[in-house]
Amino acid sequence: MEFDEAEKLCQKSLEIHREHNAPASIEEAGDRRLMALIYEAKEEYESALEELVLASMVMIDAGQENEVAAIDVGIGNIYMSLCRFDEAIFSYQKALTVFKSTRGDDHPAVALVYNRLADVYCKTGKLRESRSYCDNALRIFSKPVTGTAAEEIASGLTEISAIYEALNEHGEALKILHMAMKLVKDTPGQHSMVAGIEAQLGLMFYKVGKYGEARGSFENAVAKLRASGDAKSVFFGILLNHLGLASVQLYRIEEAVELFEGAREILEQECGSCHSDTLGVYSNLAATYDALGRVEDATVILEYILKLREEKLGTANPEVADEKRRLAVLLKEAGRARIRKGNSLVNLLGPARRG
């Protein structure tokens, strides 16, 4: 996740290509695709788009039709991030035409593009079109061509499930996630993928108010990541936060505090104290401290959050005003030296507020 260092190394590689290789080589195109991934991870989408376009031009000249189509999918993803939806659809449709022609109508690459199109149509409110592309992708993944890896199918099914959930078809989404889980749960080396599916199950249960089931799924995901040695990642920190929120809904407040503190430690280390995910955990932790009567601890955190949000967003932003109101309540209570009741946490957080 050290993207700045990765960018420097990739830039050095591109300089070597320019000095020692023929212009616009396939190897250089490969490194440009890598640089695009780095820029995308850093949310520098225009730079990522530029690298992908340059890589595509090289592959077109080299007659690498399938590689051009794969790059078109990447270009579509960048357009999605930029909310340039019409251009995203155009890029995906170009890739779809090539993959159908070269690999056949039932190839997983075709299903992948169906997933992307379903997502963009869902985001633009064209739900019938979105559902149609989801159904087409599900048809392919339900009867995959021989030789398709189980993890590739499971990944595709997980994407489909997320779109069905966005379409408010929770039952169908859960069914598809269980299909994905069945494919990889006993596959060696797939702890992280299984943990991701468990986490998505937990989120679905949480959204429909099944907090006990949500907590169970989050706990399973945590256990699998710990078993795979992945207990210091950003994903693990976010997962601890979600488990803490489920514990809050079950009134296991002291347990939630430990989980939020664990999430804070990881996200501070991996993302920094100013990152939105870290700030969300700070807010959750302040609320749980308040619920346990640790008003001074809660106040210190909220003052810190308020300072960061004012610096980043300005004093007139609605999020800043919200934090000011919460802080004012805590300062008033601290002045009266009164311990708040446990249900104050629910009042502060609201339903599924900072997941």
TrEMBL record:
SMART domains: TPR. TPR repeats lie at residues 69-102. Keywords: TPR repeat. InterPro entries: TPR-like_helical_dom_sf (IPR011990), TPR_rpt (IPR019734). Pfam families: TPR_10, TPR_12. The keyword Lipid metabolism does not apply. PANTHER family: OS02G0109800 PROTEIN, PROTEIN KINESIN LIGHT CHAIN-RELATED 3. This is Kinesin light chain. The lineage of its organism: Eukaryota, Viridiplantae, Streptophyta, Embryophyta, Tracheophyta.
